[in-house]
Design goal:
The chain is α/β, with parallel strands linked by helices. 38% of the residues lie in helices and 20% in strands. Helix 2 crosses helix 3, helix 3 packs across helix 6 (206-213) and helix 9 (280-291) packs across helix 12.
């Protein structure tokens, strides 16, 4: 099968969060199964050029409509971790992708609307007719709209579109002028059953467009699919999803075990597996040495996360002091984009800076992230909502017991040591329900109590997690079934 991924991210070359990991991991799994996979990305000035091999200009004459003019683009081809990627580089005074950042500009909607039109124009001009176009999140929500409204009439009648919602907290709500920018009919599309936003009367919703016009819609876990379908976590898209429920489902993300695997990880000093779990303690020692924590008989609780409201930052802040007051060490790796959240964590960092049991690293460092997963005993994920979450899946593979709030993909992958209805050998962590300090403390106290009082049972939790398979194998098969269904 010929599959084209259109995305704003692909790890490791252009990664902000889990979206980049998913596009890379799913594409890799599909390619390993013998499918022809290409990934179309913007050519950002800030992408990791060192992770691209054989980068060459392959097409110079790509002209893309923009209002009443055309913008010239070059197209580059390169290989990223054995995956073929095409990078679109526009040349105009707008400098769409020469901003030094991936997201966060006032004109993000215009930038990615242009990219969506450019991706389809590239396929048309280079005579690409994939079986499946797989689009991701609001940034590519206009792709199925453009395909149906413009490009099918130009000869691109073969491709079917799968559209994945990674996080409906970001929907691409923008002005109606974006339709004119990409050459779409405003009167035809600015209606309640098409692109008109559900909240703002004078706005369009790019994610809604992707849902309405694609052949199948997925999101990244079964529980999150149910949450956004029926609860306020749908952020206003509930009615649209219910209207299109016949083509909507949740497919749990996987993780790439060639990257996140304690047995072969080149970024940890001591590799280990479920049968050599005693080696994990050497990474705990290495982590303490790197972060200057005291070598005491205490568990390490870790947080590796973006620090935004979705991630339950108020609970993360509380957990720092709870851990220090209850004979645990605490390590955090993460950064905040919101100024007030950033200020909160910097204030706490100053307060605990000299504490030999605590280290807050308010940035992101891939190498340190691997060492934290390998060296910590527990990983905390107290999210308000979590579409899938990769952190807990990585923690399980590294024998680092997850402590999570029951939501989204966390509920689908972490099963409580005490209260789950799963068989004991499938229980792998600690789960709490409410978004308050008392619920968090209950889960933390149970985890710390097991670590101190029943180390043999704590080890069984670690082994249970390491034995579970959250690779892309199952999810890749599920996506192939979806692709075959919509192209039948």
């Amino acid at each position: 099968m010929y599959i084209v991924m259109i995305s704003s991210e692909c790890a490791p070359v252009a990664k902000v969060g889990g979206l980049g990991d998913v596009v890379q991991g799913l594409s890799r799994e599909l390619a390993l199964r013998g499918n022809n996979v290409e990934i179309i990305l913007p050519k950002y000035d800030c992408m990791r050029h060192d992770r691209i091999s054989d980068l060459n200009k392959v097409y110079e004459g790509l002209w893309v409509p923009f209002y009443d003019r055309w913008i010239h683009c070059d197209v580059y081809s390169g290989t990223v971790d054995h995956l073929k990627c095409l990078f679109i580089e526009p040349h105009s005074e707008h400098n769409f992708f020469n901003r030094g950042i991936f997201y966060g500009n006032y004109d993000d909607a215009a930038r990615f609307a242009f990219f969506s039109r450019a991706a389809l124009e590239l396929m048309l001009k280079t005579n690409r007719h994939p079986d499946i176009i797989h689009c991701h999140d609001w940034q590519t929500g206009l792709v199925p709209v453009l395909l149906f409204e413009i490009y099918q009439r130009l000869g691109m009648s073969h491709p079917r579109v799968c559209y994945t919602l990674h996080n409906v907290g970001h929907q691409g709500v923008t002005g109606v002028h974006i339709l004119k920018q990409v050459g779409l009919n405003q009167n035809h599309l600015f209606t309640a059953d098409r692109l008109k936003d559900h909240t703002y009367n004078n706005a369009i919703n790019l994610m809604k467009g992707g849902i309405v016009f694609s052949n199948f819609v997925t999101t990244v876990s079964p529980t999150y699919a149910n949450e956004i379908h029926y609860t306020e976590l749908g952020k206003g898209l509930q009615t649209t999803l219910q209207q299109h429920s016949g083509k909507f489902g949740g497919v749990l993300n996987g993780i790439d075990y060639s990257v996140w695997n304690s047995e072969i990880d080149p970024l940890v000093p001591h590799q280990y597996g479920v049968h050599t779990l005693n080696e994990k303690v050497k990474n705990k020692t290495a982590l303490r040495e790197r972060l200057m924590l005291q070598p005491d008989f205490k568990p390490i609780i870790a947080v590796v996360s973006r620090l935004d409201a979705q991630k339950g930052t108020h609970l993360i802040l509380h957990s720092i002091f709870y851990a220090l007051q209850n004979r645990a060490q605490f390590v955090l790796l993460g950064s905040a984009s919101e100024p007030h959240i950033n200020a909160q964590f910097w204030d706490v960092k100053r307060r605990v800076n000299d504490n030999p049991d605590c280290h807050l690293e308010l940035s992101y460092n891939e190498e340190l992230a691997h060492l934290i997963y390998a060296g910590a005993d527990m990983i905390l994920i107290p999210s308000i909502y979590e579409p899938c979450g990769l952190t807990q899946l990585i923690g399980l593979k590294y024998g680092t017991v997850p402590i999570v709030r029951r939501t989204g993909g966390l509920a689908d992958t972490v099963f409580d040591a005490n209260y789950s209805d799963r068989p004991f050998e499938e229980r792998n962590g600690y789960v709490f329900n409410d978004l308050d300090n008392q619920a968090l403390e209950s889960a933390l106290s149970r985890a710390l109590g097991l670590w101190y009082k029943y180390p043999r049972y704590f080890r069984q939790l670690q082994e249970s997690g390491m034995n579970q398979d959250y690779s892309w194998n199952y999810s890749g098969n599920h996506y192939l079934n979806i692709y075959n269904f919509i192209k039948a």
